[in-house]
Structures are given as C-alpha cells and as structure tokens.
C-alpha cells in the first residue's frame, strides 16, 4: 500500500508541478510546428490539388492572418470567459480544422480550413503564457517561461524535417492528420492539470476593433497577392488596397473611442514602441517570407526529396537556437536596440548572401546566408517582446506584448505575399506570364516539355535572388529604424531588466511576450 501511495503521490506531484507546463508546451509545439511543417510540403500539395501560386500563398497566409487578426481579441475574450476554457476550445477547433485540411479535396477547401486552423491557433497562443503565469510564481515562473521558449524554438527547427519525413512517407496530408492524437492529449492534460484563471479586472471584448483589424489585414494581403497576378495598378488590386486603408482608419477610430481598446493608437507616439513594432513587422517577413519559394526551388527545380529539402532549412533554425541560448548569457546588459537592430541587420546581410544563385548552383550556395539569418533571428526573437514591454507603462504591458505577436504574424503573411509577387515579376522577364506563375507554384515538371531545363533553372534562380534581395533590404531598413527609434526610457534599462514585468504580463494579458528563440 505504501508503494501505491508513493506512486500516486509522485503522479500528483507531477501534475501539480510539471503537468500544466507540459500541457501548455504540448499545444504550443503543435501550433508552431504547423507553420514550418507546411513549407516543405508545398510542392506535393500543388501537384495533388492542382493548386496555383496564389493558392499556395494563401495556404500559408490564411493561417498567419487568422492568427494576427484574432490574437488580441481572443485574448481579451479569454480574460472574461476563462483562459483554460478558451485554450481548450482553441485546441478543439485546431484539431477539427487539421482534419479538414487533411481531407481537403481542393485548394479552396484547404485554404478555408487553414484559416479556421489559424483561428484555433490564436486561441491557443493568446492563452498559453497567461495560463503559465497564473500557475507558476517567482523562480518557477522563470523556469516555466524558459522551457516554453525552448520548446517554441525547437518547434521551428523540427518542423521542416518532420514535414519532409511525413510528406515523403505517408504523404502531405499527414502533416495535418498527425495533429489529431496530439490534440487529444493536449485537451486531456489541460482539463486535468491546468487550473482555470481569469483576469483580475474584467474588460469588455472589442468586437469592432477585432473585425476592422481583420478586414484591414485580409484586404492588404489580398491586394499584394492579386498584384502578383494582375498587376499593381489593376482595379482589383487598387480596390483591395483602398478597402485596407478604410478599414485601418476605422480601426483607429474604434480604438480611440473604445473603453478597453485592443491596441491604443497613442502608444505609437512613443518612438521606442514604434521601433519595436517596426522590428516585429519586418522580422518574420524578412527572415522567413522567402523560405516557401526556396523549398519549391529545392524540390521542383533541383529535384530534392522533401526530407532533403527540409534538412536544407535546418542551419537557420540551429543557428538561431544556439545564438539565442548563448547570447542570453553573453549579451546580458546590452541595450535592446543593439540586439534587435543588429539582429535585423544580420538578417538583411543573410538575405543578400542568399541572392547569389544562378542556373548551375545547388542548395549549398544558400547555407552561408541561412546561417546569417539564423544568427540574426537568435538575437531578435528573444528580445523583441521585452523591448516592447519596456517602452510602455506597466498597465499596458499585455497590450504591447500581444501587439508584438500580432505584428510578427502579420509580417510573415505580408512577406510571403510580397516576395512571391517579386519572385514572379522577375521570372516574367525570362518566361511568359503563365509559365512564370506555374514555375513559381511548383510546376517545373510540366514545363520541362515546353522549355529548356537551363532556362527554367535560370529563371527561378533569378526570381529567388530578387526576392532574397527584397527581404534583405526590408531587414536592413527596419534594422536602421530600430537603432534610431528603440531607446529605453531610462538609461541602462535592458530587456533582461524587464523580467518581473514580463512575468506579470504573462499572467495578466493575452500573448504578453514571445521568448521563442527560433522564428515563427
């Protein structure tokens, strides 16, 4: 009996100690893996579903846009309805959408399911850190946030390889279906070991702000994607941009009048906060927005398998993980403007170093640039949320941290759209319009009977070079702006000095920080 009681005690101790952290990390790992895991599977999706380039862009952007548009609003709802309840509901929605993705009969159904998946992901991401903050205190909270950050970084590193293994093995649909058993485990553990929590002071849900921001993000991204197909001055493109401007204006008006705004426009008058948002918006797009097209080039032009294509991405993730882990100790006390601004400059240099391809190059030509991007990512990702928190008063910490996650996801969605448009525009200089779009969308195999192999390789390499240059320029400009704008309100105040504020924000607000070391 004593042995039975001892085993039961150990299980109860685990459930009280590591149980909530394990449950939250399980759902976080699944959420973040699903971003990078899709990149390697795009060529197989295109062939199986007869998807176009814009379809592939929306497979990625539908997910990222839903995350960006709903993150702040869902977090506010969780404060009222209960964070565990919203988190579990998000996992259920994510799982149902994953099943729909895995069974999708065509590209339209897949894009719609990915958007729903992103909505579930927003409920998960907005509540992970507040749940941890409500369970752990003091040193335990610091340990929990560190483990959560390490798991987030590992997810970005594992995603491309796992996506390659599943795509090359049972098929691309399994990159979504594998989420089902993980979701069941995450729901079971969350209901069993994660206590319910709510914000100490209730606030209303800003439905108007959520709707107008979602409309702005969707219209802007749609305009960029359409520009790649019909041109920047077409009626469809200009109408989408006009709608985006109107929606953004409405969002600003709503936020000024709301009793509990999602994002107070007055914060953008603070140069340090503006610099953090510029860095967050540019970071994910510049660092990762070209990778989907790199994956298509590796598999459809160079003929690499999905597994090998995924392994090519690993140097970026490994470099990011190592720099974040080592830099946290070596760069203690270094101002955030230097780590974030310098990191963005490294991302920019890495982008330019990838713009060296020609018709005869292989994947090895990308490695130096990918490693530099990884170095920059390892500097920017752990510091960007803390810099935003340091730029605002304590009572706005949750709003600032949530804004960082929102801007990062929006930056990724825009990066995929913009750099895809740049890619195809460059390829049109060497190929007919239809051929350029087909090649960018993974249709190299069908085009080989119509055009010489060297022409196809040269056109794609030229397009990738131009897209990488655009990403590099984005990161360099953003890095320079961050160096100018991002200054602490008090001299010598570093991101590390925000530890107490970060922990409180994790408890009190949605998506308060993002200590993930690697990318998405």
UniProtKB/TrEMBL annotation:
GO terms, molecular function: transmembrane transporter activity
Residues that span the membrane, as ranges: 21-42, 62-81, 88-110, 116-136, 143-166, 172-193, 205-225, 237-254, 274-298, 310-331, 338-357, 363-389, 410-427, 467-486
Task: Give the originating organism.
Answer: Streptomyces sulfonofaciens
Predominant location category:
membrane
Q: Which GO terms describe its cellular component?
A: plasma membrane
Task: Read off the InterPro entries from this record.
Answer: MFS, MFS_dom, MFS_trans_sf, Sugar_transporter_CS
Q: GO annotations under biological process?
A: response to antibiotic
Here the segments flagged for biased composition (Low complexity) are: 497-520
Q: Which protein is depicted?
A: MFS transporter
The UniProt keyword set, sorted, is: Antibiotic resistance, Membrane, Transmembrane, Transmembrane helix
Give the start-end ranges of region Disordered. 495-520
